[in-house]
Amino acid sequence: MKKNFTLITLFLFAILTFSQNVNLEEIKKSISNPSSDFYLEKIITKYKGLPSQLDSIEARHLYYGKASSVDIKKSNEIRENFKKEDYKTALEIAEIILKENPTDLETLSIISECYYRLQDSNNLNYYSTQFRKLIDAVLSSGDGKTEKTAYLANSVTDEYILLAILQKKAFEMKRFSKPSKDGMYDVWDDNGKKLYISIIYNMKF
To answer: Please, are residues 58 and 90 in contact by the beta-carbon 8 Å criterion?
Structure first.
């Protein structure tokens, strides 16, 4: 499946984020504590209401702490309608998906692309800001140079979106995988230069 939608080219910015270790156990505690500044419901409310005001730590807690289980049938439907340029139907499906899974990167990229093509700047800004905040959280999770500093992604789909953001062409690279503590390491070889991405299958709480 093609992951690098046209919208993603708008995010080929100079990456200025600073990598920091992601402590999944601390995130688990914080998002579950109503008195915490990073209580999940507080962050989601801010993310949906004023996404531009979400700071990097909040975005990280949201991305790595929000349980997500995308309906495969709906995901396939939104892709098909997007390819057919039936943006109205694609948007309707995207809204349904995001209601249950507001941090789904692929859906955010598609809905933003639809509004981009429809020249709806207000909705484009809203959803692309959400997308950017979550992508920044992934980019700040590591530098991808070693196993210990691997980028952390929630899913294989997010991994391919990350590769597009990093201007990497997956089909031109070699990949091998091996188990990690929380899921699986994908090691991408780009003419001898390795890129490490950890897919954290069991990270959701």
So the answer is: no
* 133 CA to centre of own chain: 9
The token pair at 185 is: 């390491």
Closest CA to 64 of 105, 9, 12: 105
| Measured CA distances, 188 to 15, 124, 137, 165, 179 (Å) | 19, 32, 21, 15, 15
Q: Which residue intervals of the chain are DSSP H helices? A: 6-9, 24-32, 40-49, 56-65, 72-83, 87-100, 105-117, 121-139, 156-165
Say which residue the tokens 């995988």 belong to: 177
The Cα–Cα gap between 133 and 146 comes to 24
As a whole number of angstroms, the distance between CA 138 and CA 200 comes to 12
Q: Nearest Cα to 97, choosing from 120, 116, 85, 114?
A: 114
The one-letter amino acid code at 121 reads S
Q: What is the pLDDT of residues 11-60, one digit of tens each?
A: 554 444 555 678 888 999 999 999 999 999 999 999 999 999 999 999 99
CA dist., res. 59 & res. 195, Å (int): 23
Contact 120, 173 (CB under 8 A): no
